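Holo prediction. Input below; ligand is thiamine diphosphate.
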Amino acid sequence: MPLAAELFVKCLENEGVEYIFGIPGEENLYIMDALLNSSIKFITVRHEQGAAFMADVYGRLTGNAGVCLATLGPGATNLITGFADANMDRAPIVAIAGQGATTRLHKESHQILDLVSLFKPISRYSTMVMEPENIPEIIRKAFYLAQGDNPGGAFVCLPENIAGDQTDQNNIPLKVYQQASSQPTTESIEIAVTLVLQAQRPIIMVGNGVIRNEASQALVAFAETLNIAVAQTFMAKGAIPFSHPLSLGTVGLQAHDYVAGGFDEADLVICVGFDMVEYHPHLWHPRCDKKIIHIHKTAAEIDTHYHVSASVLGDINKALQQIAQLAKPQTEHISDELRQTIIAELDDYAQDDCFPLKPQRILYDTRKALDDEDILISDVGAHKMWIARLYRCEAPNTCIISNGFASMGIGVPGAIAAKLANPERKVLTITGDGGFMMNSQEIETALRYKIPIVIMIWNDHQYGLIKWHQQRRFGRTGFIDFTNPDFVKYAESFGAKGYRVEKAEGLLPTLQQAFEDDTVVVIDVPVDYSENMRLTEKLGKLVGQS
Ligand SMILES: Cc1ncc(C[n+]2csc(CCOP(=O)(O)OP(=O)(O)O)c2C)c(N)n1
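Structure of the complex:
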């Protein structure tokens, strides 16, 4: 008779799980042992937070839930930040934790926490296996909900005594299926078409839902057919190529985006796959004076500034195709002032030889070093704001920014997962020195599994974004300074390569060399963040979320 842990692993295989990221513990010994006979590759990491971020980015890039695993108590709590990040960024993730035996869960007991309650507010589903025969249903439900219309986190814990119980041979994994998206109703399409026909100055706002639902092509066709310009949120970068004439660029950083992004002059905002956690509607719809069409798989959140005139729910591809067929093209579209400003700004700084380097110069050279399909993973901080604004992203899922939960520390583990999911592409993470030190230990993981990634650190010895906010709000700063290790020596001590950029012209050749090195490479790039306040002076206060 198979053990419950063996059935559990069979069910994961049945879901197509390729990797599990995690750290074993005493209470999940049975699972770890069952994994020895499995096709699933276990990636042993150095901190459970790293495992959760890896699962987060793997889920976001592939659409299949990334899986992370920890022991009970402290192992499970260490998963929380990366797991919450995935849940709020709507990346499918399944977290598995061990749990103490059911004979001691009712009382104070070593390392016992009520894990189901702990994960409940940050997940779509949180449960504990109480009987081995429930495992097929629980695993199916976890993946079904994590990968559903509103994707996110599912948490399952397995008490150690249940894991070691025997289970019936007939207890087998359930058939895997994902409910097909419902079709938008004719009535909702008609209402949307009427609004588009009535509009004088429509604008499209794209959120990550377009990329998640593989609707980027349909979106570009929709925009072209109707001649309507497209603004993208941070997490929708690449939904329409930056170089497309109808692309307005990425919005959501500065107060000025409301004007430069074209929202000020718009009378209709067509929100496609837009999630409110990313860019609060009061920032782009302050006067509540526009009509909104909401096209998504899930219903719109209620918000004073997001009062929708039409809600087209269901398959996003179908919705876009059907509306485009029935509506008429606009004679002119909102001007791409924001995109033109960005092109001009990048060109202005292309040869800037100041040292430390300006963010604009770094991103200009970074774009040169990466092909359109290569992947850039941003960490969280001032560098993220610059990446969101200036990185010219040409294809979906090639610039990964966490903008829902927006947790520091995602960069290094995220790059590892991105490379595992896309071994043929170059993967770069840009991180602040603060965020880098939160999960830098995963350099060892990347080296051990021979996962070549390039880590570019914007070195300013400070929590740069917080300094930016302090300068703007109070005109003085505090509590943001720290010292760094020698990043080159630090990298080398792991067996990775380390480079320090010592002049502006040095960056591009160093990046090119780093990708040729085909190992884990750390590049220390001193950055000049005095540009932050200059941007604020030019474009108004920073509204992008940290
Ligand atoms: C885990 C976590 N802690 C704190 C914050 C708040 N926060 C956002 S950005 C930031 C500073 C980031 O500093 P650094 O990594 O050096 O990047 P920089 O801003 O200098 O580019 C902080 C503390 C956060 N988003 N996530």
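Residues 380-383, 406-409, 432-435, 458, 460, 462-466, 546 surround thiamine diphosphate (CB under 6 Å). That is the main takeaway for now.
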